[in-house]
Amino acid sequence: QDLVSGENEEESNGINLMEFSDEILLHILSYVPCTDLVLNVRKTCRKLATLCLDKSLTHTVLLQKDYKVNKDKVKQLMRDIGKEIYQLNMAGCYWLPSSTTDHVTRCKNLVKLNLSGCRITSLRLSKMLSTLQHLRSLAIDVNPGFDASQLSSECKATLSRVSELKQTLYTPSYGVVPCCTSLEKLLLYFEILDRSREGFMLSGQLMVGESNVPHYQNLRVFYARLAPGYVNQEVVRLYLAVLSDRTPENLHAFLISAPGSFAETGATKNLLDSMARNVRLDALQLPKAWLNGSGLLQHLKFNNPFYFSFSRCTLSGGHLIQRVINGGKDLKSLTSLNLSGCVHCLAPESLFRRAEDDIDSSILESLVVSCCNLRHLNLSAAHHHSSESIGNHLCQLLSRLKHLLSLALPVCSITDVAANMEKPSTQPNAVPQTCGKKIRVGVQTYPRNLTEQACQKVESSVFWMLMRSLRFLETLEIIGSSFSSAMPRNEPAIRNSLPPCVRAQSVGDSEVAAISQLTYLQSLTLAQLPNIVTGSGLVSIGLQCQHLRTLSLANLGMMGKVVYMSALMDMLKHCKCLRDLRLEQPYLSAGSQFFQALSHCSSLQRLCIVSRSGTLQSDAVMSFMANCLEVVMCHMFMGESLTVCKNLQQSIVRSFQADRPALNVVIFPLLHEDLTEVIRDVPMRHLDEITLFKSRVAEEPPNLWW
To answer: TM segments (predicted)?
Structure first.
């Protein structure tokens, strides 16, 4: 309150904050959560009271990762500025009671509303939507017990004007889709389990009385993402049945992401044939069974494509060049390309090729030249081995893509072939990767500084030069081509893992150190790098990559011993912006030293540790939770007994739940038979973003949802 009156004192110490122009102050305030602006900051002085209610700050309210918000704060926020809010995002606010959504009715001018991950009943949804006559964009969950017959006529009238709908299904249902007669964008997330909690098999048939006539005539974007399970496949076919009868003329994005086998049927074949005849697409993703062995790509027409995903398809490089990028013609509009698991995409043909054979650099060069504006590229989950030809290494070719913001590569693709042939593995006491008993191997303390000769050799590597050329990269994933996480989705934990690719054996500390050149790096994933000896490169990343927010490390070095723990602890002391940390490593010991180092990460919000035969110290965990006040998610799946896990979980919840309403704690033995039952209760936000390991680069089209 004394900010303005103390101007004279401020003159001797520096510039008074209140002397800045309104434009600068508004820009500063835009980084403050809306709840803090309205409920706290605007009470400090008259000037801030006015600025905090500026339309530029109240037009869009984002609560989706405001983990400190509670029901009372939402109630007060809606009471104070409800009429000024046009866009409200409450996605993933799983901790708020269902009654919280009652206060959204104060936002009479809402145009966009995201309630994904929020608990809401059919009756509450009906009451809320009945008052939102200007709503045009809606995101909701459809849970067991949802009943469309409880929706009022006023609610259905609002839904009839909605043009964008995102719907996450946890039960077989059309949800509100039949009520949305003006749909232009439809996003469907299928998270239906095959078995109930009682163990009964579920059916993909919809509930009796549900309308089966969705209105797709104005549809421009259709997106469906399926979790594993046959029920999800059955239900999505019901949504697609209407599309197969009449394909919307304005459809320009058709995307279906389905894991495993999703067989093509007569109805889906008719749909694809109709699309080939009647529409020109800008974005495409299909299940691998719908593309493999078919000539579909030859007949589909594209306008100005911005997103392609051929994940896990057997598409050859020859087909990619001829049918997708038109023989190397200009494709500057393409900004996102997902070729994850597309093992033959950089080879001329796939009939007689082995997955580990060298790539054809001319195919990659054509891709780079034609798609020069790529911002997101995923080449993971495949063996992309470069030949010895000078200047044709995969890293050298990718260095031309100056606009890249996110990149995913297999570990074996970054190997410097020439250097690799000159010298054997640098790892002393080399031990084969194994999943057997713990191996006791003496490891020297990691070197703080590389020698001048070593520096010159490292800095001349192709991967080092790639990192130097992609200075604006924000997301990087380096994942072993044979890596598979031990963390399950709907099945028991994986007990064994495949050995790394032979070409990947030399990738280790020096390659990790090269990543430290990425000054603007925000998210880093490293998995199955076998030649990590000390982890010294991690320290360089901690020092240089000060914007790092997400870090995921899995199976680094030899599997019988965590060789990089000392370096990791040094790294964490510098990660002041780190918010999400995921560690997956057998035999990991999470003791007091580790959690003391982790306590330096003052911004940390989510922690996930997956470790077969791993151990933890309960007192150290409790001390860490007390020191890191921002932590709202603590997931640990290790080798401790069920009793130890339950006691620690209960202690954390009992001690910290009252002050952290969003706190979600799961501590459970990794190999316990009931793990899948525990996983199903984890909020989807955490499960999808951090607990489950997956490649996230180009997983979805950019800006798919606001």
So the answer is: none
User: Which of these, 38, 29, 154, lies nearest to 85 by C-alpha position?
Assistant: 38
What are the residues facing 407 on neighbouring strands? 377, 476
Integer angstrom CA distances of residue 617 from 97, 341, 388, 597, 638: 33, 38, 49, 14, 12
Task: Note the pLDDT tens digit of each residue in 407-441.
Answer: 999 999 999 876 555 444 444 444 444 444 443 44
Burial status of residue 530 (CB atoms within 10 A of its CB: 0-12, 13-18, 19 or more): buried
Alpha carbons 583 and 554: distance in angstroms, whole number: 6
Burial class of residue 394 (count of CB atoms within 10 Å of its CB; 0-12, 13-18, 19+)? buried
Asked if 484 and 692 count as a contact pair (C-beta separation under 8 A), the reply is no
Backbone angles phi, psi at 563, to 5 degrees: -85, -15
Interatomic CA distance for residues 701 and 122, integer angstroms: 31
Pair 527, 693: CB distance under 8 Å: yes
Burial 545-577 (b: 16+ CB within 10 A, else e): beebbbbbbbbbbbbbbbbbbbbbbbbbbbbeb
Contact 289, 260 (CB under 8 A): no
pTM above 0.90, yes or no: yes
Beta carbons of 630 and 602 less than 8 angstroms apart: yes
Instruction: Express each pLDDT in 352-401 by its tens digit.
Output: 677 778 999 999 999 999 999 999 999 999 999 998 877 789 999 999 99
- The region that residue 193 occupies, defined by phi over 0 for left and psi between -120 and 50 for alpha, beta otherwise, is beta
Burial class (CB in 10 A: 0-12, 13-18, 19+), 159: buried
- Report phi then psi at 596, rounded to 5: -65, -40
List 527's β-bridge partners, or say none. Answer: 479, 554
Query: What is d(CA 88, CA 111) in angstroms, rounded to the nearest whole number?
Result: 8
Q: Would you say 271 and 240 are in contact if contact means Cβ atoms under 8 Å apart?
A: yes
Domain positions in the chain are 305-387, 409-414+463-487+500-690
The whole-angstrom separation of Cα 250 and Cα 221 is 9
Cβ pair 113, 135 in contact under 8 A = yes
Q: With the C-alpha atoms ordered 431, 433, 436, 441, is the resulting torsion angle positive or negative?
A: positive
- Of 319, 408, 332, give the one whose Cα is nearest residue 374: 332
Tell me the three state secondary structure of residue 11: helix
β strands within 34-135, DSSP E? 60-62, 87-89, 112-114
Give CA–CA dist 686/696, Å, rounded.
Answer: 14
Domain 409-414+463-487+500-690: CATH class, spelled out: alpha beta
End-to-end CA distance of the chain: give it in Å, rounded. 37
Of 259, 291, 258, 257, nearest to 272 (Cα)?
291
